[in-house]
Amino acid sequence: MKPATRTHTASTAKRSARKKSVRARGQQKIDSERAHAIQEALIREHYLSGEATGTWNQASEEAMRRYQADHGWQSKTVPDSRALIKLGLGPSKDHLLNPESAMTTVPDAPATSATPTHSTPPAASPDPVKNPNQGDPSSNPQ
Q1: How many CA atoms lie within 13 A of 123 on its CB side?
Q2: Mean pLDDT throughout 48-74?
Q3: By the 8 A CB rule, do 86 and 70 touch?
Q4: In this structure, are residues 41 and 15 in contact, taking their beta carbons and an 8 Å threshold?
Q5: Are 79 and 64 contacting, i.e. CB atoms less than 8 angstroms apart?
Q6: Could you tell me the pLDDT band of residue 80, with boundaries at 50, 70 and 90?
Q7: The whole model's pTM is what?
Q8: Phi, psi of 58 (to 5 degrees)
């Protein structure tokens, strides 16, 4: 019996020799307009000092990290959506007909109340409601 051998074609060799390009996914840097708006908000909230430059720099990253940590959110240098909304930089509601009353987020879960977990069955009423389609059993001659 002859041992099995693998043959490589030219196309297989080319494919394995090609280097796959690794593309970074997601947003790579903050737009200067957006960075300026975030910096102004961080300055207003006293997390950043000086003037907004529009360049997302080390000071901006540290200010955002502190702001997010103080609110109990992720403390990465990348702005969290909750932080941006809290800073007044959330999504625009200009396209909504009634922006004041529009529900654009999931409502908060209802708070648990201090009511007991067991329920008492309702008390039986002394005079049951009679169905007008049925006769009174006491007046039904047999």
Answers
A1: 3
A2: 92
A3: no
A4: no
A5: yes
A6: confident
A7: 0.50
A8: -60, -45
